[in-house]
Each structure stands twice: as C-alpha cells, then as structure tokens.
Amino acid sequence: MRRLLVQVLCITKILLCAADSLSLSEDNLKKLSEAGEQYVNEKIKESLLRVKQVKEKMEKEEEKHRHLMEALRHSGDKKRGAMQLARETEQKLEEAEQQCRDLTKSFFGECRPCLENSCKAFFTSTCRRGYASFTFKVEDFFRKMAFQFEATEQENSDKTSSAENQIKEDKTETEVLQAEASFKALTSELQPSSLSAPQDGSGDGFFKSLGLDHIFYSAFEFGKDVLGDVSSTVEDIFGEIQEAEEYFHHSDRECPRLQQLHSEMEEMHTLLNASCLQYDNRLQLVHGHTADTQRWFRDTYGGLNWLANVSSAQNIFRVITVNLQPQLQTNSPRADSIVVVSILDSAPLTVLVPADLMVEDPAFIEYIAQQALTHYKEQIRAIKMPATSEMHVGELQRKAACGTEEKAAVEKEKKFGFLCDERGYLNLVEYIIEGGRRKGDRTGTGVLSVFGAQVRYSLRDQFPLLTTKRVFWKGILEELLWFIKGSTNAKELSEKGVKIWDANGSRAFLDNLGFTEREEGDLGPVYGFQWRHFGAEYKNMHTDYTRQGVDQLQNIIDTIKRNPEDRRIIMCAWNPKDLPLMALPPCHALCQFYVCDGELSCQLYQRSADMGLGVPFNIASYALLTYMIAHITGLKPGDFVHTLGDAHVYVNHVEPLKAQLQREIRPFPTLNIKRKVESIDDFQADDFEICDYNPHPAIKMQMAV
C-alpha cells in the first residue's frame, strides 16, 4: 500500500512538471520576438555609429601615415644625396692620392741614378778592394726598393678596389640595411690616413700617408749594415739621401688638395651618418604606426564584422521555443529556462536563462537577446576574422574551393585559428623582430624591444603549450609546484633535472650580487615566497615560514569560492621591500583572476618578457595554475590573457625565432588532471597528463644571465 502511494505521488509530480514545462503560445512567442528584435536593432544602431567612428579614425590615421611617408621620402632623398657626395669626395681623394703616388715614383726614378753613383764614388775613393761585390749590393738594394714601391702601389690599389666592391654589395641590401652598411663600409674601408707631419720636423708624414715610409727606413738600415766602419763618411752620403727624402717631401706641397680632401671626407662621413640616422628613425616610425594601426583595426573589425550580414537578413530576431522549467519542491530552486532563438538568419541557438528571471520581466528577453547576439558575434568573428597574412587567407580560399574533405579541413583550421592556437605569440615575435627598437639590457646581450602588448589564449578543451617548438613541460610543471610550495632553494629543482634556476643560484652569480654569505642555491624571497609569505622577514632558504606573512595564493582560492564576483582577486610577486634580497626580481609580476559563467580566467602582467625562452614557459605556467585553481574551486578554465610590458627578443635569438616562424602551427594538446584534488598543496607531478602533444623539435637558444 505504501509503495503504491509513492508511485501515485511520483506520477502526479511528473504530470505537473509536464504541464508546467509546456512551451509558450505563438502570440507570446511573437511578442518576445518583437521585444528581442527591438533590442538587437538598438545594438545595430550603436555598432553602425561605431563604424562611422572607425572610418573617421582611419581617415586621420591615413593622413598621419601620409605625412610620415612624406617625411620618410624627404629623409631618403637627403640620405641618397649625402651618399652621392661621399662617393664623389672619395673618388676625388683616390685620384689625388694616385697622382701623389705617381709623382713620388717619378721622383724616385730621377734620384736613383744619382744615389747609386754617389755610393759607388764614395766606395772607390775610400776602399781598395771589393768594388764589384759592393756594386752588386748597391744595385740589388735599389732593385728591392723599387720592388717594394710597386708592391705598396698594388696594395693601395687593392684596398681601393675592395672599398668600391663593398659599396656595390651594399646596394643589394634592403633600404634600411643599405644605409647602415654603406656608412659602416665608408667608415671602415675608407678611413682617411693621417697626413700631418710630425712636430719634430722629420718629414715622414707624407710617406706614411702613402705607405712608403718603410722604403726609406730600409735605405738607412742598408747603409748602416754595409758601411758601419766609416761612420763619418756614411753620414755625409746618407745626408744626401735625407736631402732626397726632403726633396720627396717637397712633393707634399705639390699635392696640397690631399689634406683638404681628407677633411671633406670626414665631413661627408658626419653628414652621411646624420642622414642615415634620421632616415632609420623615420622608417621605424612608419613601421610602428602601420603595425599599430593594423593591430587596432584588426581588433576593432573583430567586434564589428557581424554587421556585414545585417542588410541581407530576413529575420532580425525570432524566438522559436521557450521551455519554463518547474519547481519540483517548495524548498528546492527552480531550474534554468531553456530558450531557442534565431538571430540574423542564424541556425537555432540555445540560451539558458537564469531561473530568477520571469518571462513577464523585460529583463528576460533582454538577457536572451544579449546572450544570442554575443554568441552570434563570436561565431562570425571566429569565421571571418582576417588572418595574420594574406598568404594564409589565400590558402583557406583555395581549400574552400576543393572537395568536401578539404572543406572540412578548412573548418578545422578556422576553429583553432581564433584565440585557439599560438598565432598570437608568433605574430608578436614577428612584429618585434621587424619593428622592435634596438636597446641595451642588463645582460649586455642587446635586444629588439616593444613596450606594451597583449595576447589571449583559450583554455577551453586545450592547453597552450607551443607546437612550433617542443617546450620543456617537465620544467614548467616542477617549477610551478616549487612556486606553490613557497620554496626558494634552486637545488630542489636541479635535483629533479630542472636546471633553469642554476645560473641565478650559482656561487659566482650570488657573489657578484654581493650575497657572499648566502648559501649557493638560495635565491632569496623570489616568486614562491611572495605567493605564500608576502611581507614575512626573509632569512634563508631553510627557514620554516609557516603562518608568516600573507598567503596570497590561498586567499585567491578562498575568495573565488566565497565571492567569485570580487574584482580584487590578485596575486603579486613584486615586493619593493624584498627586491634587494632577490637573486632575480620577478619578471611575471602580477596576476588577476576573473570568474564568469562558471569559468575561471587569468590575466598576467609581465614586466619583462623574453619572447624566445621565457614567454613560452610563462604562458604554459599560468595556464596550468589557472587549471589547478579551477579544479579546486569547481570551475572550468576560461581564458588566459597575457599582458606584456617590455616584450623583447635577444639579438642572438633572432635567427632561431625566424626559423620557428616558418614552421606549421599544430593544434594545442589537452591537459588531464587524473585525480580529484581538494587542496592546492596536495598537487603532485603525477597528477597531470599532457595528451596529443605533437610539437616540432626543440630550438636551442642561449639564456641571457
């Protein structure tokens, strides 16, 4: 009897539920559709106004770009003029130097017989034997001098030819590199020799400028070797040679333009340097303005491209069905209502409406229209968002014209082409390499840098571990668990095969920072210490800091559980008081968590971003932290937003990154947490499994310390 009574009650509830969940009448659906259409029309008007504003801004940017290009062309003309003047001056200088060399050679030829005869006459009047041998030595000596002169002339000719070839090669480079290379070639290959004579009046300045000083030095040495026993007479004879040199030096006055031409050449160098510098700066301005405008337009277009379908749409907004879920018991909450709609002729969309919104409440249909429009925009954005390169667009169009199988491949490619793959990371790397400013840095390596950038990654059903190169997953996982532990001992990571902190914890590195008393491996109050013990007094890596300072990480988890709408869910590793004690100040300085629609998202602010080595690590590390916190708090992973301050590429990473940019992007892997974990401190490395990771091979890059 009791069992029968229970069955009757159950059947009664089912009938009541069925009655309560009946769809609304056609008339009510029509009224809801009209109200929803009115809401969508208002949003269309707002977006059209935004389109007008975008057009006005683009006109201003085009005008600005035109002025920048005019200034660039003007600088280019000045640079080309300076290069032409430098070449003309260089040619005049070479011609003048050749004339002087020819004149010197002529003078030497005229004086040679006189010098030979003087030597022979001296020998016959002083010495009684060995005349034939001495004569042979004198003639051989002057032959060697003539040969050295010819060799010197050929060497100068080769240098001139080399300089000319260098300038010709520079013309084949790109416009920016050409200016820099041309200037370097001029300063290195055409550096003017010193023409000023010594202050002591020895008169060798002219010969040094032509590379002939060693010839006359050899003459004096020969005289000392052969005639050392008759020093007084030697002085007389080689006094004549000295007079001959002074006679040659007189030719300096026959080439008065050399000094003037060298001065002009130095002025041309200065002018060319200034022209190239101005041109390069303006070229960077043009590149930067173009990239900024393209990025702004791409981001704005993503929010407005849905308007393209408005004019052809037959139905702006239509409510198809509304299923109001019943309340089964007095004390139990009502279930969300299920509403199916179509917006702008789209396929039916299902919207879950919170149970506290009643159908007669205007907020009911407003919520539905808002959610439907948002979902529609996301669909259009994912499909129509312009690709980062025209080549990519052309490839998709080519595939779309093929058979069914390739069309399916196109759809798959589109799917992980919007906020789903690493294209944002690669775009930023390419932008920095092409348009970044050259700067110095702490390590002395040199970087290309931009200030202020942001990339977004979806964490829904995927994990952002780069595929264009293999990323050290074990290092990412072990380091994060090390942070969560609050450890500052680099040896703990090193013992697990993760060496990424070894250099910063080495004896030499710590001593260089002045931490001579600190134990090797003690990094000071770095990330993990600030996450778990912010404000505590740091002593060393072995101290027990339990219940000391503020446990920011646990506070985040507690706040998400207690008050997910809070806008102050922040964890900060930047502690000014502790910075002097750190082996390395935090690069990823602050993160904020955001809860909406059952999803947990994270935004990281990274003050210093090493795009080649550090950033791939940081992306995966904070995505993993988001997964872990979402797991503990019962949420799903949403988005990871990466905001970068000084985003840079080390100059020794440029070529490896260019190779990485050429690789095909593959779908991200997925992350599986293998067991239910209740506390952030209970996670272990074995709890995580990366699935379907198919990256390209690793790319070796040197870490800057």
TrEMBL record:
Cellular component GO terms, alphabetical: cytosol; extracellular region; mitochondrion
InterPro entries reported in the protein's UniProt record: Clusterin-like (IPR000753), Clusterin_C (IPR016015), Clusterin_N (IPR016014), Thymidate_synth/dCMP_Mease (IPR045097), Thymidate_synth/dCMP_Mease_dom (IPR023451), Thymidate_synth/dCMP_Mease_sf (IPR036926), Thymidylate_synthase (IPR000398), Thymidylate_synthase_AS (IPR020940)
Domain Clusterin C-terminal residue range list: 170-377
Pathway: Pyrimidine metabolism; dTTP biosynthesis
Cell compartment(s), UniProt: Secreted
Active site: residue positions: C587
Domain of life: Eukaryota
An example Gene Ontology molecular-function term: thymidylate synthase activity
Pfam family, one: Clusterin
The protein's name: Thymidylate synthase
Gene source species: Crenichthys baileyi (White River springfish)
